[in-house]
Amino acid sequence: MNFDDPRLTAIGLLTEVHSGLMGRFLPVLSSSGLSEIDFETVIRLARSPQQRLRMSDLAAQTGLSTSGVTRVVDRLEREGLVRRESCASDRRASYAVLTDAGRERLEGVLPQHLQDIDDCFTGLLDESELESFLGSLRKIREVVRPCATVGAVEAGVPARP
């Protein structure tokens, strides 16, 4: 067995980078009253057409179970950051919709969050490195989380990364 296998190195580096980035990002998110999953939920809504997603699509995008996403949306709804809307064409479905307060919360945290991303991640790469890296991440995501963008595309509107 080769313990120096580059596959082990690749996954180890990815794990270390993720852990380090989250360690850097979480204090800023927490200071705005958002957990990691709260932030992921509201930023996905903010980046979706009409700033809303079907609950089932939000669950698929976040990797949460249906009950898990319901709990997160319930909490965000109590805080006034998200509201639910019924689906006019399917009474069984509902949407999570970002509220004005949710947008304001994001607008308050994003400047520092984007600065942190730039300082310890994207700013370390030149334009071609970043473009190549994003392409590689999308290729991997398509295999490990193919539902990560479900519901985020409107007819004729390309999906955001």
UniProtKB/TrEMBL annotation:
Record-linked Pfam families: MarR_2 (PF12802)
Organism superkingdom: Bacteria
Stretches assigned to the HTH marR-type domain: 1-142
Protein name: HTH marR-type domain-containing protein
Source organism of this protein record: Nonomuraea rosea
